[in-house]
Structures are given as structure tokens and as C-alpha cells.
Amino acid sequence: MRRSVVAGNWKMHGSSSMIEDLVKALADSVSADACDVIVSPSFPYLPLVQQLAAGTGIGLAGQNCSAHSQGAHTGEVAADMLRDIGCDWVILGHSERRQAGETDQEVAAKAVAARSAGLKPILCVGETLEQRQAGDAVAIVTGQLEALVADLADGDMIAYEPVWAIGTGETATPEQAQEMHGEIRAFLAERQPALAEATRLLYGGSVKADNASALFAEEDIDGGLVGGASLKADDFAAIVRAAS
Ligand code: PGA
Questions:
Q1: 0.85 cut: is pTM over it?
Q2: For the chain, what is the domain count?
Q3: Is 170 one of the catalytic residues?
Q4: pLDDT digits (tens, 9 = 90+) for 28-82
Q5: What is the pLDDT of residue 1?
Q6: Diameter of the chain by CA atoms?
Q7: From start to end of the chain, where are the E strands?
Q8: Whole domain around residue 197: which residue ranges?
Q9: What's the CATH code of the domain at 184?
Q10: How far, in Å, from the CA of 65 to the mean position of ligand 1?
Q11: 68 catalytic residue (yes or no)
């Protein structure tokens, strides 16, 4: 039985006061008993969130990390720094980073660095609308996974986030999402049989309070990676309840 998880990707949003209000509201309204709840603020706010969320069971994720260990890499953040300030997780390979030029190989190298620092990667994959319309969605997603699967480890999560559904209000239907999650699990069963059943597969792309239950009811959807709706405490709490 896989434990459900809801992760909030706050992207490059917020300020100290906005995040303080949000975390206080989440601490009052979100229960992390029945499922894992993770939030991922921008780097500067990680310590603030860590302090405010202490004792709530809400976990912390970085939105990215360097593939390098500490050294002369101006502007980068090392995985062991994220671990040091209380992160358990790191989102890697988000489509917004891939669109800015991050390659499968870079995502794979970051995942290796993350694991060796004791972080668990949330590995994002997903196709664009053009790729889906061309009938290439499964090939694209399994191609992205190909770079990651050899080093996949116990505790890693995979987030299927169709690019056409991110921030657009357009959600994959539960059937479309399940179809891809089924493909991903079948791919894992072939390539990493010992991890296929236990690896949690999250859906991301316009998850909202009113579509979360139907998505999470699907067999291979173990939770969600939530962008926009994770910035509203009531909506995020409702999504957590749907997963619990
Ligand atoms: P969205 O973002 O929920 O706003 O579509 C999801 C994500 O990018 O992780």
C-alpha cells in the first residue's frame, strides 16, 4: 500500500509576510496524519517555512539543486545545503526548468547528488501538447525516465506533469492521467522491478480542490504535485483531504 502524498510547488512566488500567513493557515487546516504533505518554497524562504511548520508534520522540499557538491558554483545551491536546513525532498526536472534548457542528463546528475546528500528526489516528467497530439506522449515520458531509471532509489517519487496542463487550468482527465501512470509503472516494472510497486507516482497539472478526488481515486495516482492551488490554504487543505 503506497502512502498518498500532496506536494505544493510554490514556484517563484511569495514574500516573508505572504508565506508566514500561508504557513500559519496551513498549520491550522492541513493534517499530515493520513498522507505526506510537502511544501516547496523558493530557497530564501525555506528556513522561515521550516520554523513555522515545525511540529505540523509538513515536510520541506527544495525546487532544484546543483549536480555539484559544494564549491565554486556561484548562484547554485548544493543538495547537502538543502538537507542541512531541513529539507527531505527536492523537486527535479520540472518542465519550467526543462524549458529553460535543463537536459535529462542534468536532471539525472542532480538526482544522484540529491540522493547522496540524503534527499529524496521528486522527478518530474511530462510531454508538451504538440508531442501528445503527435501521438508521442508515452515515448517522450519513457524517454525522460530512461535517463533516470538506472539510478532510481527507494523513496524517489515520480511526478507526471503534462506540460499542457501546468498553470493552464486544463487538467488531464483522470483516465488520461491514469493511462500515463500505468505506462510509467509498467516501465518501472520492466527496468526496476524491485521498485515498481512501491514508487509513488504523483500527478501534476492544474490539480484543484474540485478535481483532486477523481484523480487520486485512480489506481496508479498516489497523490499530486500542486502549483497554483497550493498557494491558497483552503484549496491546498481540501486537496490534502482528498488524498487522505
Ligand atoms: P499547476 O502547477 O498546479 O499550477 O498547474 C503544477 C506544477 O507546475 O507543479
A1: yes
A2: 1
A3: no
A4: 999 889 999 999 999 999 999 999 999 999 999 999 999 999 999 999 999 999 9
A5: 83
A6: 48
A7: 5-9, 36-40, 59-62, 89-92, 120-125, 157-160, 200-204, 223-226
A8: 5-243
A9: 3.20.20.70
A10: 19
A11: no
